[in-house]
Amino acid sequence: MADTTQVASAASSKDPAVGLKAVRSLRVLVERLEALQVGNARDQGWTWDQIAQLLGVSRQAVHKKYASGRGPLRRRKD
Q1: CA distances, 34 to each of 2, 41, 44, 71, 74 (Å)
Q2: Are 53 and 60 within 8 A, CB to CB?
């Protein structure tokens, strides 16, 4: 499912196959958006505490997810 409007509509479907597929698509979208915004924040000098507070998680959780270089913010080595 690519179109955001379709995904949002499908998420409330009475057909579990359609609804669950939509939930999976939304989960992927949220992960990508979070990684993008964490990267933007870090690029602008934000601390892990500032990011964690706005995400509603601990500093350790956000740091573990994004600081290791193995997570969604992996940078390509040129």
Answers
A1: 18, 10, 15, 12, 13
A2: no
How many other C-beta atoms are found inside a 10 Å radius of the C-beta of residue 4?
Answer: 11
Query: How far apart are alpha carbons 73 and 40 in whole angstroms?
Result: 10
- How far apart are alpha carbons 48 and 51 in whole angstroms? 5
Largest distance between two CA atoms of the chain: 48
Single pTM value for the model: 0.77
State pLDDT tens for residues 4-15: 788 888 989 999
Tell me the one-letter amino acid at 10.
A
- SS3 of the chain: CCCHHHHHHHCCCCCHHHHHHHHHHHHHHHHHHHHHHHHHHHHCCCCHHHHHHHHCCCHHHHHHHHCCCCCCCCCCCC
